Amino acid sequence: MSNSSVTDYAAIRNVMAAFSPAPKIEPNDQVQPDRVFTPYSHRAVLDPGRQLVVGNRGMGKSLWTHALTNPEVRSRVASVYGQPSLNRTDVVIGFNGADKSSPVAPTRDAIKRALASGYNEDDIWRGVIFRAICFVNGKAEKLDIESTLEKLRMTPILWENELSTVDDEFANQGKIILILFDALDRLADDWQNIRQLTTNLMKRALGLRSFRSFRAKIFIRPDQYSDQRLFEFSDGSKLKNSHVDLSWQPHELFGLLLFEIWRDSIGMAALQKLANKVDASAALRFSEQRNRPALEEQNALINAIAGTYMGSDKRRGRVYTWVPLHLSDAKETCSPRTFLTAWQKAAVHEPAPKDRAVDHLGLIEGVRRASGARLEELREDYRWIDDALEALKGQFVPIERENLLEVWKNSQIVQKILREAKKGNWLAPVELDARADPAALLEAMKSIAVMEERANGKINVPDIFRVEAGIKRKGGVAVPRRN
Prior knowledge:
This protein is of the alpha/beta class and 483 residues long. It has helices at 3-17, 61-67, 71-80, 108-116, 121-136, 145-154, 157-173, 191-207, 222-225, 236-241, 250-262, 265-277, 295-306, 319-326, 336-347, 360-379, 385-390, 401-411, 413-422, 438-447, 463-469; strands spanning 52-54, 89-95, 176-181, 214-220, 244-245, 396-397, 399-400, 452-453, 458-460, 472-473.
């Protein structure tokens, strides 16, 4: 092997070792175009006509919410996804859980005050939509939403007149106003109020379809989507059935990995040389893979970076399939942060290989470390997850459903979760809001893809959660645990 090849491997390894995997998007973050990777499966997510997007923690709900407010990003994705209407779209955020007031989005406290002042949930969303349209039309409202609500209460015709006038004006110009709603689990302190607010928001989102220039897009968590009571209104089923799932395919995750290396100038040069060597340059044409992802070339380039097998031969599995498989949740998807964490940890593993950037030993360690990272990621939304898994420590999966429920019953996990929720330490699973029993907790774990119920009725916990939680596995090749 030439010294040049060794240098290229080292350069790629150093870039991966410096990854800061998919940092959390905070409310009102500015997302620049160079941070945005465009998986083709996300095309429908960004379609202004698709109103409901369902995505688990870390899949990109907040990223796309904030990225779309940047005109440069909209221009780029309009080109990549063949959606020219995005170039004619003004995007504003109607709610994102921020603690800072804005001329459009209210804070949770502002919503709470409005409800206490006698306004109902529909009044609030009418106010938000009115504020969004005024903002785009150059007539921003005051920061406090109460002033807008009072104005609409005193002059009811103002809503109709303003929306009709702006709709006609924008339609003649071919323009669209897209209002985005994210972090709806932060709307209130309990599920009853969250549900009321969310249901009324969905009704208003559907109502906007009677206008030519106004659209709303709502990002929600999978546990909220699984709450049937959320959609118990006229045409609620239409919204539910036309939803878009926000997830990542394995080749998109590998594309993201290459994209993150490519963003670094040194990594770009080394990656291009390696791609040329294995005839895989097509895998680096990120914006040209709309119709046909360069899967063969991508596979070849990943093999050049990490080797073909997770060991000396194919018996241990192929890197290209083994890594995403062992990082996947019960719905066979993996978050981008988890995937990049695995490769970042693989890159710092010692001793470093000389004939590739990382090796199978580093990847095994990376997958194990990513398991903890993914649980930490989910804890941000589902803080009760540790208690549910802790009760199963030392148990074997797949486990009979009845046995699982018995373990939880004996450990009084549901009662513990509800006690902590009552203290205000977290929101309990939305499923427990209907019935407080272990079967409802199981439904919650399934909805967020931490558990799966197999055709034979047994319950499994995917490796990505099982390893860190200390749950044992029956049969198969397990991910090695830490020493």
